[in-house]
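note to self: dont lose this again. the chain is below, predicted strucutre after it. 308 aa total, dont forget to put it in the shared folder this time
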Amino acid sequence: MAEVFLALAFGAAGFEKQVVLKVLRPEHRGHPDYERMFLEEGRLGARLSHRNLVGVHDLGYADGAYYVRLDYVDGADLASLLARGLPGVPLALFVADELTLALTAVHELEDEAGRALGLVHRDVTPSNVLLSRRGEVKLADFGIAKATLLREQTRAGVRKGTYAYMSPEQVRGAAVGPASDLFSLGITLHELLTGRRPFDGETPLETMERIREAQVGSLEEVEADVRPLLRACLARRPEERVDSAEALRRMLAPLRRRRAEAGPTELARWVRERLDAAQGGSQGMETVAEETATSCSGLSPVPEQDAR
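---
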């Protein structure tokens, strides 16, 4: 429902900073439902402040359109990077660890009175995971996130999200909670480790049927000590999954200690190598900016002109 632009923010004394502008598409402007969802996204993003989440700077209105100003991440989304090769088990576990921190911040968000909002992202996919040249891991795109305790509660029968990463309850159209995001993270981690998703079928319908059954099989492509963690994420029933993103992080800790060190430095090297190889060392930052801005929304290509 939006277009994304790479932009420059200006300030006093020659201050400039690259940012991303997410703008409601022209055909949706003036439409109450689209504008309400877009405004809710901006307000929700403003509540979330964490190093593993793409930050929302402000929500504005100009020239007849609402816009959200976001962090610019100098890198690319995980989906495009995985198309160029796997990172290896240590880095895969590091990315998963960083995403558990992001989801903990999301799931534990409270309102001004200290009441849990019950927020669920509902679209944890490689396309919404941004990796920077500095080794940062950031979860993006809260356009379909829903605070279940707010006025517009998550309703049965409403399916949002990328179908191949949905949880069984999402596929059924049932109400979702934090356990749904952990299922999606499990699928993402499986793809990080093996290069494929565990429930893919020949058609979207077959994939969703496989997700509904959630038969993960032997997981023989995954190293033996990592399999229990994946099973804890990919259990069919939400109550049978790992309790929380924080509990999942505790499961990741010993797995990471047994392997070679992998952190921001190693991830930055992996990201830079793939981006530089893809650009042939000569295309400069423009391609990176376009990849990054596109991944911030996952909804439309970046227009040729920059918004300033």
